[in-house]
Amino acid sequence: MWLTVKALENDKVVTEKLKGALSDSAVKYIEQHTNGTDGAIAVGECKFRWIDGILDGAVSETKTKAALGRLDRIYTHKIFGKPAVVLTVLLELLKDGRSRTVEMLAEELDTTADDIRRQLEYLERIGAVRKVAFPSGKSCGSCSGCDGGGGCKGCMPDNAEANMGDIWEVCR
Fold first, then answer.
1. Where in the chain is the domain with CATH 1.10.10?
2. What DSSP line would sit under 34-73, residue for residue?
3. How far apart are the C-alpha atoms of 88 and 43, rounded to whole Å?
4. Residue 156 has pLDDT above 60, yes or no
5. 3-class DSSP state for residue 155?
6. 108 against 137, higher pLDDT
7. Are 170 and 113 in contact (CB under 8 A)?
8. CB of 29 within 8 A of CB of 35?
9. H or E stretch at 84
10. Which pTM was predicted?
11. Cβ–Cβ contacts within 10 Å for residue 153, how many?
12. CATH class entry, domain 81-170
């Protein structure tokens, strides 16, 4: 049965093996019945008709509206979905304890720095994040990784405070 289906599909490997194993008249007969047809499509159609016959009557089709939870409705909303997802991912990124610049967040989230600034302003208004500003050459003294000494080890590499600008972190 399998060889027959493969011959109908014009399978090259099977066809070559059949040519070596069958008589010339049998090979001609197979070629007459498979020439000019796309056997793979014909076999596929037969398989789908067979499956449809099995499923007919066994499966009933009823349309039901999926009940979405509140967050699902927000995340899949045409207008509010993307900002909600970005806010969620942004908070998760900031939760790891590392502070990041706006540019670093924009790169990680594959969006613009302006978009990140808008999202961060909103998160700051609701008290989820706070801005940590660095005076040049000094320890910030206010982030979760700061030891209050000569440098901040929690949010930036050594001697990088001059170019860091504003840093954001999740409020604890």
1. 81-170
2. HTTS-HHHHHHHHHHHHHHHHHBTTB----------HHHH
3. 49
4. no
5. coil
6. 108
7. no
8. no
9. helix 81-95
10. 0.41
11. 13
12. mainly alpha
Selection from 82, 171, 77 nearest residue 124 by Cα? 171
pLDDT at 55: 81
Among residues 24, 23, 29, 20, which one has the least CA distance to residue 8?
29
Q: 104-129 pLDDT, tens per residue? A: 888 888 888 888 888 888 888 888 87
Dist CA 148 CA 151 (whole Å): 7
Residues contacting residue 38 through CB under 8 Å, at least 6 positions apart: none
**Closest-CA residue to 122 (of 163, 156, 80, 154):** 80
Q: How far apart are CA 119 and CA 85, in angstroms?
A: 11
Q: The tokens 């001059």 sit on which residue?
A: 162
Which residues are CB-contacts of 18 (< 8 A; sequence separation ≥ 6)?
Answer: 3, 7, 26, 27, 30
- Which stretch of DSSP H or E encloses residue 92? helix 81-95
